[in-house]
């Protein structure tokens, strides 16, 4: 590791932080982890040795419980690569093993994450923490999206009201067109024998 010059002022500021934040930054220094919930294929290929066989999805589905009797244990190089991937993963998000596809829970619970975010926001070091659903900025963006929802318009909503509300605009357009061509409709109505076999709208 290359030697870096440490600013004494930064050390004094760090010592003034609350103990939970100090413990977190000691275990996970800023910039040593990524924000991806699972390692990407490119990242896995760059970290794992070239001879590392990664089982396909079909193989994992066919053998959900891989055993050492049919599959040899991982080599030391593979174990070191997996450990390096796990060490640089986001501690606030779940992590997936690229070899076994097994998931690991976040290293910090939701309650613990919220406590760290609250302390970091108070101390002005919120940007140094990793992101998760509990991050104040992410929660704020979700609140803004929910605040833009307007009932009955479908903006920001999956359900756009009751059935008659969803069909009202289309029916009003059909009614407008029928009123504009009412003279032609009346003539056709009379020609058919006062609506005999009439299938158009309005009935």
From TrEMBL:
InterPro entries linked: Ribosomal_mL59, Ribosomal_mL59_dom
Regions of compositional bias (Basic and acidic residues) in chain numbering: 135-148, 160-174
Pfam family, one: Mitoc_mL59
Coiled-coil parts of chain: none
Domain Large ribosomal subunit protein mL59: 20-191
GO molecular function: structural constituent of ribosome
Residue segments, region Disordered: 25-48, 135-174
Biased composition (Low complexity): 35-46
Span of the signal peptide: none
GO terms under cellular component: mitochondrial large ribosomal subunit
Protein known as: Putative mitochondrial large ribosomal subunit
Organism: Elsinoe australis
């Amino acid at each position: 590791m290359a030697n870096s010059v440490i600013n004494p002022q930064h050390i004094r500021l760090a010592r003034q932080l609350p103990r939970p934040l100090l413990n977190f930054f000691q275990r996970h220094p800023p910039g040593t982890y990524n924000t991806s919930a699972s390692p990407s294929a490119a990242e896995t290929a760059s970290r794992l040795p070239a001879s590392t066989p990664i089982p396909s999805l079909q193989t994992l589905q066919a053998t959900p419980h891989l055993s050492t009797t049919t599959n040899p244990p991982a080599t030391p190089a593979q174990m070191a690569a997996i450990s390096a991937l796990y060490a640089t993963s986001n501690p606030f998000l779940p992590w997936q093993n690229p070899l076994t596809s097994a998931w690991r829970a976040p290293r910090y619970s939701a309650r613990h994450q919220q406590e760290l975010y609250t302390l970091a926001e108070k101390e002005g070091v919120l940007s140094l923490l990793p992101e998760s659903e509990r991050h104040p900025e992410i929660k704020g963006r979700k609140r803004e999206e929910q605040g833009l929802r307007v009932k009955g318009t479908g903006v920001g909503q999956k359900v756009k009201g009751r059935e008659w509300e969803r069909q009202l605009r289309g029916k009003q357009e059909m009614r407008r067109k029928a009123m504009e061509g009412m003279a032609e409709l009346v003539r056709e109505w009379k020609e058919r024998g006062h609506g005999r076999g009439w299938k158009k709208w309005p009935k």
